[in-house]
């Protein structure tokens, strides 16, 4: 176990949970088995993030592009999602964790949305970590829809074009009101962000690991956080400026 500085943990951690299918195929198993094992890793990461006091955890669970996967796999994923939410809501209540969902929920099946609505309702009064699930989510789609909502408000006279700033635009995103992620972890060796939080990741520290998501252990998680803590976040400033401020 690594010694992590509690003062240098990310306020907002985002994760692209990749490699479930590859993990299964490498073992000559059905892809859904990989997703089932991946759900166990989700449990571990949520637990560890909660124990460490991370305030915001956002998980890329299902992208808008994932609808193009084989219909049988998509149905199995939706069933697994419902089962996970139902099983874990009681634990979220015990740990004071609140559910949140971003993405185009109109694409999700009605029974999945009903399960999500109930979990969000039950945990709405919780004040601890905010667990956000990105479902049927695509960054470009989010940006275009935010621009559309903002344009309608401008036409309606609710907002002047001269008043539009990055903060104003950001408030129209699915993540409006949330801090941008400090740290992004992506598993399975892919070194891209795959249309995830395109606006929000502007100054996020990125971490890529070859490990597939089902094999992402507590030690791997702590190794990633230790890497984050070793970085100097300058936001356009020089190292000298950061040192003087500290």
List the topology elements.
Elements: E1 12-16, H1 20-26, H2 31-52, E2 56-63, H3 71-94, E3 98-102, H4 110-123, E4 130-137, H5 139-155, H6 166-170, E5 183-186, E6 205-208, H7 218-229, H8 239-245
Parallel strand pairs: 1-2, 1-5, 2-4, 3-4, 5-6
In short:
The chain has 246 residues and is of the alpha/beta class. It has helices at residues 20-26, 31-52, 71-94, 110-123, 139-155, 166-170, 218-229, 239-245; strands at residues 12-16, 56-63, 98-102, 130-137, 183-186, 205-208.
List the main descriptive attributes of the protein structure presented here.
Undecaprenyl pyrophosphate synthetase; 246 residues; 8 helices; 6-stranded parallel β-sheet
Q: Give me the CATH architecture, please.
A: 3-Layer(aba) Sandwich
CATH topology: Undecaprenyl pyrophosphate synthetase
Oligomer: single chain
CATH class category name: Alpha Beta
Q: What is the rounded Rg? A: 19 Å
Largest sheet: 6 strands, parallel
Strand order of the largest sheet: 3-4-2-1-5-6
Q: What's the mean pLDDT score?
A: 94
The proportion of strand residues reads 5-15%
Q: What is the terminal-to-terminal distance?
A: 28 Å
The total of helices stands at 8
Cofactor: Mg(2+)
EC number: 2.5.1.-
Subunit structure: Homodimer.
Keywords: Magnesium, Metal-binding, Transferase
Give your account of this protein's structure:
The protein is an alpha/beta fold and 246 residues long. It has one domain (7-138, 180-230): Undecaprenyl pyrophosphate synthetase (3-Layer(aba) Sandwich). The chain contains eight helices and six strands. It has helices at 20-26, 31-52, 71-94, 110-123, 139-155, 166-170, 218-229, 239-245, and strands at 12-16, 56-63, 98-102, 130-137, 183-186, 205-208. It has a six-stranded parallel beta sheet, sandwiched between helices. Helix 2 (31-52) packs parallel to helix 3 and helix 3 (71-94) runs parallel beside helix 4 (110-123). The model has no long low-confidence stretch (mean pLDDT 94). Its cofactor is Mg(2+).
